[in-house]
Amino acid sequence: FLGQIFHSIKSPFRNFSNIKKLKTFSESNEDDVIWALKEISFQLKSGEVFGIIGANGSGKSTLLKLLSRITSPSSGSAEINGRVASLLEVGTGFHPELTGRENVFLNGTILGMTKNEVKSKFDRIVEFSGIGKFIDTPIKRYSSGMSVRLAFSVAAFLEPEILLIDEVLAVGDLKFQKQCLDQVDNISKSGRTVILVSHNMNAISSICGRSMLLNKGRIHSIGQSSEIINNYNKIVLGNMDKQNEGVFN
């Protein structure tokens, strides 16, 4: 009983100390700190489609989470002019017990649309997603592909100034992937900005004018997409050659 009392008294101080350690790093234990991102700096123009590529664990998704304000940076800042919509994970904001119709309104509201906006665009959202027959079926009975199609359709008709897209389009079939890329192209032509994270180099080269290559949380290079894709191939294939050296010709 006494031990429990002392533990309760010390808990606030212990918690404060732990939180402080998360925010400040002393020079003595800098080797123990793994930076998800370090010294990242870039600028985008309005209406630009910008690609971000890199190996798994290079910090691409973390960067999008910072820009969409899901995660706060431990240092530095990002200046964003315009309304931001993000599609980072399959079915984010969807409730499995609600129908597709109800989730369109729910997700649209979470992303910043009014009820009247969702109503006016509802038919186009459903038509784009291609799941009109199942729109009144609970989301829990959808496949992952159907969920991401509906999620992307809501985000695509949000009309944000800036759209952040993580590697979610890979879940859809080829027809829907092409449909999504065409929609992204249309969004950019209407003067809006798109940041696309993808491992699909064909998508990056076809719709992204400029791209950025991340490597271990740092910027490796920024430039024309074709040049950056070459750098990406050199890094990935170069690492594969080193790992398999002497195993096969």
Task: Write structural notes for this entry.
There is one protein chain. With 249 residues, the protein is an alpha/beta fold. The protein is built from eight helices and six strands. The protein has helices at residues 2-23, 60-67, 100-110, 115-129, 144-156, 174-189, 201-207, 225-243; strands at 49-54, 84-87, 162-165, 193-197, 210-215, 218-224. A six-stranded mixed beta sheet has the order 2-3-4-1-5-6, with helices on both faces. The longest helix is centred in the first third of the chain and has 22 residues, at 2-23. It is globular and about 65 Å long.
List the SSEs and their pairings.
Layout: H1 2-23, E1 49-54, H2 60-67, E2 84-87, H3 100-110, H4 115-129, H5 144-156, E3 162-165, H6 174-189, E4 193-197, H7 201-207, E5 210-215, E6 218-224, H8 225-243
Parallel strand pairs: 1-4, 1-5, 2-3, 3-4
Antiparallel strand pairs: 5-6
For this entry, give a set of tags.
6-stranded mixed β-sheet, globular, 249 residues, alpha/beta
